[in-house]
Prior knowledge:
- It is built from 14 helices and 15 strands.
- By secondary structure, the protein is of the alpha/beta class.
- The chain is globular, with a radius of gyration of 26 Å.
Amino acid sequence: MKKQKLLLWGLCAMSALLLSLPYLLPHSGFLMLFALIPLLCMDRIASLTGLKHVWIYHYSTFVAWNAMTTFWVCNATVGGGLFAIFANALQMSLIWGLFRYSKKYFKGILPYVLLVSLWIGWEHAYFDAEISWPWLVLGNGFAGSIRSIQWYEFTGTVGGSLWIWLCNLSIFGLMTALSDGSWYSFNKKAKTAAITATLLLFIAPFILSAVLWHRNDPADFKGKEQEILIVQPNIDPYHKFEFLQQEDQDKIALEQIDEVLSQRTSTAPILVLTPETFTGDAVIRNGSVSSRTAMGFQAAARRYPNSSYLVGASTYEILQQGDRPSLRAREWGDGWMRSHNSALYITGNDIDIFHKNKLVVGVEYMPWPTIFDPVDQWLGGVIGRCEGQGRITDFTLKDSRDGAETRFGSAICYESVYGEYYTGYVRKGARFMTIITNDSWWGDTPGYKQHMNYASLRAIETRREIARCANTGISGFIDLRGEIKGESKWWEKEVLQGKVLLHDELTFFVRHGDVAGRVCWFSGALLLLALLVQRLNSRKKTAGTLRRQ
């Protein structure tokens, strides 16, 4: 028994390691195609031997995977990081538990169909859940192996998760058939079909990706380009509010901008990016923004014609009214204050504004305010109360020479993790994308590198080039194949100047969204209903047998 438990723990550790490495090492995404096999073997051994308390094994596996890949969240908030690790693992483990429970009533491959359907359906629903942390969607494991997943333009990341599950289960199925002897009862055609199908499942996506990689070579596109200047001020986020005044931060960025634009001879439009929450002095009253920082950038826009500025801002909306506008609003004098994580689009004459919708739970966002508002008030106001604007809007960049307009979108930090949501910018008309973020809260850990790689996934899914501006590394440009160009270094003040290609075509994923996730969600719901019916029928039969006895 002791040797058996050591074997099971070894299999769990192997799965946790194989699941984690693709998130930590570049070009190791292929490991995801085998990562779940040890865990499936553990489950089969446990079932055959009648082992009790199997949940300890699969829950520990998922905790280890979450901890090895997202431990860095604890650098910003220890409590939030631990909650993310254990709660996210618990959700995964509950799905595995339902899979194990279904074996009592389903036979053959049906429990495994339920497992895949529930897992993929959960990933799909998790993107829109009130408490959402979809960092470890299985398909994200290929974010550092973009040459392998160019076909995400059709399926999105969740489609990649489905492929990963199918590859793991196909190998596991062959192993099971060999171990229980059923393989030898197959005729030659059945064996050939099984092996051929497995090989195609593994190889065909790589071949398709290679074709798409060459078809989308940026060198073959001769369309219009947009010039962009990325400002990476490299300000310590833990000190900026205590030891650095906002005017000092403005001075750092404006000096970086002046150094480049004063030497520029072109009169073509140029977009200047600053990172997320660059300024905290923006106040909104009656729909208009008041900000000394914004005024400084407007002055720069007038000083350098045909320049416009996208500035990350913590904004505060002041409402002079008696009724509380929402449960997330705080009292402010005789009225109320609503806080936002925003992007200010500044030209010489106007200031446009967009509020981030996908907010970080706890730090920025209070879920289920009817429940947590009283709790937060009792705790003294420690839960974030930012509010989104509830819809996606794009910005319009105008060329003052001929009046030509170019629409673009701005995803603020965490929004770039949400693939289907991100497509909304493109459907609104964005011809290129910007991402403004501040990943330096996590320190020099895998976190900011993973976040950068996820932006590559968004470029592939939408075939829109990206200019990404971070407070400190990694800033850079990402082409339509997801390749990162001219990236900045960690913890260095830099200015990056480059161009992005403008595109108009809509990918299948942009037009139709997460089809794989919706299909699996629906099939998972049907299978759960079938499981419930089977359980009720089983109980009726048992009750009838007992009455006859």
